[in-house]
Design brief:
heterodimer, A: 239 residues, alpha/beta, Rossmann fold, 2 domains, 6-stranded mixed beta sheet, 4-stranded antiparallel beta sheet, 6 helices, 10 strands, B: 263 residues, mainly alpha, ABC transporter involved in vitamin B12 uptake, BtuC, 81% helix, globular
């Protein structure tokens, strides 16, 4: 089975600015749950955007499931939660409408949902525990519930890879722990590959198999248990 | 008057349906920018002796695609792209109108709308373009909604966001070309935005926002045309004032609903 993610010698800079990423090598097996952490400005979000093909690297190669990331044919199976994934529109979109949007990449641009789509949407909503809120507007839900709605949207596409960028920012500790437990359950039940980007990874530390610390390049790649005490807080990195 | 009503039904439904996606993408003013390019098209048609709806349609689509191109290539921020097209359109229109020597009542009818200038051919063109626009929206509703709900997520999943944005811009251009006879180039953007803003205040879902917006748009157009006819008022201004009144009423309803009940 091909690697879910494969980066070789990747370098990236925004415009003519200084390099954000230098000579990054990273491989992620299908089904792994990997936390990507590091200080603010260290390049972890950029790394995720390069992996997903949202940014083209200036150097090196990026492959998803054995194919070049740019032009990857299985994009409909990529689930992505951008930073502060919350509703940015004024219209009162319901949880069901948001989650249904996740079926568009699978179903195609034209026409409505079929029975199988509706079942997949209902199942995704149930998995994140929002059945009672399914027909309520997102604007009336808490930040943690809105995050779960967007995770359900990603799940509705039956993803092979789920990438989350700072999903715990802006939500309280209880919601962070609930989100971490939800991701662990999804990982166990669905076997989906998860990339979890965060400036702090305490909430998922117990679940992740692997921690990657990023500061321009990869400065640590291994089990969270192997990270020495002073390095535990990514803001203290002195790579 | 019957012709104006027939055209009004199409305009009243189409303008808020297209405006729904513009408002959600924070592009409420794009209609104004395209409208000013349409003015250049009307002037060019007058100067060259061509059907003005056709020339306005061509320049509007070109302006809309231009704005989207500037935005998507990050050649200019959204408001700068709008300003560039906006001012170029109005300046070209003024120069062409001057060259054509057409600064007359007929021109003002295009700017502010008129009941009397709608012909049977206009109604046929409006119906054809309007029904095509509504059909495209119905067919692409889920994809366009996915793009406004979570643009980055949809882009990662392979939804062609750039193409959908161009489709939205072209729909806005078609709406302006279709509506300029009745509502006027300078006022049509308001009919695309105000009914949607009103609907957002009282709706309970994305779909209900769009449908309610279309209902408010249709009611504003039909009531506005009736009032304009009997009171001898300009139809564009009357229609937009009614849409603005609907927005105020919706805001009032929202504030009453959201205020804590007193025992």
């Amino acid at each position: 089975m091909p690697l879910a993610v494969e980066l070789r010698g990747v370098g990236f800079a925004y415009g003519a600015g200084r390099p954000v990423l230098r000579a990054v090598d990273l491989t992620v097996e299908a089904g792994e749950f990997v936390a990507i952490a590091g200080p603010n400005g260290g390049g972890k979000t950029t790394l995720l955007r390069v992996v997903l093909g949202l940014e083209r690297p200036g150097a090196g190669t990026v492959r998803l499931f054995g194919e070049a990331a740019h032009g990857f044919s299985g994009r409909s199976r990529l689930g992505y939660l951008a930073q502060r994934s919350q509703l940015t529109i004024d219209a009162p979109a319901t949880v069901r409408e948001v989650v249904s949007a996740g079926r568009v990449p699978l179903r195609g641009l034209l026409g409505g949902l079929r029975g199988s789509d509706r079942r997949a949407v209902a199942e995704a909503i149930a998995r994140v525990g929002l059945v009672r809120e399914a027909d309520r507007p997102l604007t009336r839900l808490s930040g943690g519930q809105q995050q779960r709605a967007f995770i359900a949207k990603a799940l509705a596409a039956e993803p092979s890879l789920l990438a989350l960028d700072e999903p715990t920012s802006g939500v309280d500790t209880e919601a962070q722990e609930a989100l971490a437990a939800l991701l662990e359950r999804l990982h166990q039940e669905l076997g989906v590959t998860i990339l979890f980007v965060s400036h702090e990874f305490g909430a998922v530390e117990a679940f992740v198999e692997r921690l990657v610390l990023v500061r321009g390049g990869i400065v640590f790649d291994g089990s969270p248990a192997d990270l020495a005490g002073v390095w535990h807080d990514p803001s203290h990195l002195h790579a | 008057m019957q012709l104006a009503f027939a055209a009004g039904i199409v305009v009243g439904l189409l303008a808020p349906a297209v405006g729904f996606f513009l408002v959600q993408r924070r592009l409420s003013l794009i209609g104004d920018g395209i409208g000013h390019v349409a003015f250049a098209g009307v002037a060019a048609g007058t100067l060259l002796g061509l059907p003005v709806v056709l020339t306005a349609l061509v320049t509007s689509v070109a302006g809309a695609v231009g704005i989207e191109w500037l935005r998507s290539r990050r050649r200019a921020a959204g408001d700068q792209a709008l300003a560039l097209v906006f001012y170029t359109g109005i300046a070209a229109g003024v120069v062409l109108v001057s060259l054509a020597g057409a600064l007359d009542v007929d021109l003002f009818a295009y700017l502010f709308g008129s009941l009397l200038t709608v012909t049977r051919t206009d109604v046929l063109v409006i119906a054809l373009l309007g029904v095509t626009g509504l059909t495209v929206i119905a067919a692409l509703y889920r994809a366009l909604s996915a793009a406004v709900l979570d643009e980055e997520g949809a882009r990662v999943a392979g939804v062609p966001i750039g193409a959908l944005n161009v489709v939205t811009a072209v729909l806005a251009a078609v709406t302006i070309a279709v509506s300029m006879r009745l509502v006027g180039i300078l006022l049509i953007a308001a009919l695309m935005v105000l009914p949607v803003v009103a609907a957002t205040r009282v709706a309970w879902s994305l779909r209900s926002t769009m449908l309610l917006g279309m209902a408010i748009g249709l009611a504003s157009v039909l009531a506005g045309l009736t009032i304009a006819y009997y009171a001898d008022l300009p139809p564009g201004g009357t229609i937009v004032l009614l849409a603005a009144a609907a927005t105020l009423v919706a805001a009032l309803v929202e504030s009453v609903r959201s205020s804590p009940s007193r025992l």
